[in-house]
Amino acid sequence: MLLQGKVAIVTGGVTGIGKSIAIGLHEQGAKIAINHLPSQINLFNDIKEIIPDALSVPGDISKPETSQFIVDETIKKFQKIDILVSNAGICEFKDFLETDAQTYQRTVEINLNGSYFITQAVGKQMKEQGHGGSIIAISSISALVGGGKQVHYTPTKAGILSLMQSCACALGPYGIRCNAILPGTIRTQLNDEDMKDDTKRQYMEGRIPLGRLGKTDDLIGPAVFLASDLSEYVNGAQLLVDGGLFVNLQ
Ligand code: RM4
Prior knowledge:
CATH class: Alpha Beta
CATH architecture: 3-Layer(aba) Sandwich
Order of helices and strands: EHEHEHEHEHEHHHE
Bound molecules: beta-L-rhamnopyranose
Oligomer: single chain
Distance between the termini: 40 Å
Radius of gyration: 17 Å
CATH superfamily: NAD(P)-binding Rossmann-like Domain
Number of domains: 1
């Protein structure tokens, strides 16, 4: 029980990587506030079966006011915040030259702006609390390498990595650690369509030394590590969780 008595916020916490991490932090003893879109309340209710005292903090993370709402509601219910997992994100695969401005802007607003706003709001609360904290942002292998159909997306993941590096500098003096997790190709709803293409899926599996695509539960251990005191001197780090995909040229 590495997180007994801790309070964690997970954004985008009812699907994919965010859902697995929310459940994983709960299993280590943390109380969980889960952000999700209002339309996903049924998905939140499903998670309540697993995490009975989970707090629903619905809202569009791209709006600055949502982050303050998340912090205020979490404090109301749990009186403190120790951990933030900034996970909410979208990725539609689209040809660069056909990508409309709205798709680009929405991807930036949710992935990068949303991560900035929630990190700032939680950072202010943690500073006021005076006992530090751990902020984890879900960046991506795509922060480090490109994707021909992800030109609107990869810059947001690179931005999230950079956000954590600068927040590590800005918040470190308050004992608040900021680190990035960089998932590789993890099977989630974000790549359902992309991975339906057998040729693409077999290509990706062949690129990964461990021989398989990632599962969302593969992110639980790294998140628990960075959330817990096991990583008390880890600040501004980036942790690839990709089965060896990034380093495998040949
Ligand atoms: C990740 C990475 C994966 C892709 C998902 C949607 O950042 O690019 O390959 O499947 O996004």
